[in-house]
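Title: Prediction job returns without error message
Component: structure pipeline
Severity: low
Priority: P3
Assignee: unassigned

Description:
Job completed but the reporter wants confirmation the result is attached to the right record. Sequence as submitted:
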Amino acid sequence: MALRAEEITSIIKKELSGYEEKLKMESVGSVLQVGDGIARVYGLDDCMYMELLEFPNSIFGVALNLERDNVGVIIMGPDTGIKEGDIVKTTGKIIQVPVGDAMLGRVVNALGQPIDGKGEIATEKFFPLEGRAPNVVQRQPVKEPIQTGIKAIDAMIPIGRGQRELIIGDRQTGKTAICIDTIINQKNTDVYCIYVAIGQKQSTVVGVQETLEKYGGMDYTTIVAANASDPAPMQYIAPYAGCAMGEYFRDNKKHCLIIYDDLYKHAVAYRQVSLLLRRPPGREAFPGDIFNLHSRLLERAAKLNDELGGGSLTALPIVETQAGDYAAYIPTNVISITDGQIYLQGDLFYAGVRPAINVGLSVSRVGGNAQIPAMKKVAGTLRLDLAQYRELAAFAQFGSDLDKATKSQLDRGIRMVEILKQGQFIPLDVISQVMIISIAGFGYLDDVPVNEMQPFEKGFYKYADKNFPHLREKLAAEKKLSDDIVDLLKKAAEGYKAEYKKGD
């Protein structure tokens, strides 16, 4: 069959009419060297700092060192699929992570990708890893409390919304336990939580997840996990990824609590990355910008002013010390950046004082501003009783004969220490805390045997709620110890003591 020239012409015209000249410019480079999670790439002249770069086999990296003749790239994943000479493409995007309500209840890696086997995360919102901290004008003072549910902290080391409170101590002293209890205590509040696990064992992260699921904490929590088996670059970016997720809530008039567990491991991961990138080492082989590393992370925690919606991001960084060396490089750095420290001590922990908080060394620089007036009042008495007890206990070791006043002061102090003991995963609401610390300060517990303090406490709450039902409501409404409330507390304490002695 002969082809007609008209048909050929019409086909060519049709094809030409649909033709659009699209010129796609791509900046590409080639891998000079790869190993230990680091790649050096030649040819990316227009590459940006913290830009996402694409390697073959859908592996991504982040540009961290912009040098004259090459770019130092940290690889987000295994580097075994990358070899010398491979083509590297720029994406034109600064590294970012998914954010939003869809992240709640999920366990993700440092890139925001799900690792909990529950499928993809449906969100179209992304925040950059590195965000600028709010300036002085954009902030407001920390004055709203964030209740941890732990008596020793809420009474004497209060934490407010927008604060940065360091939790510091040796390994296995209960640092993570305090943070998990704090997350559980945010149930039925307007606070969202993010737990960032840096360099932890996978089994530890699974344990945290299971605990939170058991107590209903995962409904409002996101876990960002960069495990010990993950490459150092993933551990380095993990806290920034968690912070970006928290900033979404802060910037949308909501409240968020973020926990970094822990920043010493984060510093070690950054040290590894820096040394591999051939950055000059400083003290303890850490790079010179290690202070800036943590300050630009922690400064993003803030309570925004009312014009910006009044949202908040509260940070609880954890730093693990070696043999109680609080004067080491990383601990002192983070202490200077934060608004207070909660010191945990191993000898207290092993002596049965749990949480093992050294209330003498611990401090909150926000102080009573982050407390309700009732707690502020009873905390003053508690702090004084404990200080006097510590002083007298030191002298009492050297003398056997003690006068009556000294002995009563010691007995009061012992019972105050006992009252502050608290089991794990049972955070206490602030009203209950005020009630028990108040009656202890009034002296109603001075003759209760030390080993019966905790059963007495539980029984007192039940008795007060049953026989004085308006006490708790009145205290929650007024938030201060008025004369009427003090009278009701004293009546409740006297009534329960009489009943308790009969039971004996």
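Comment from assignee: result matches the submitted record. The CA atoms of residues 448 and 501 lie 10 Å apart.
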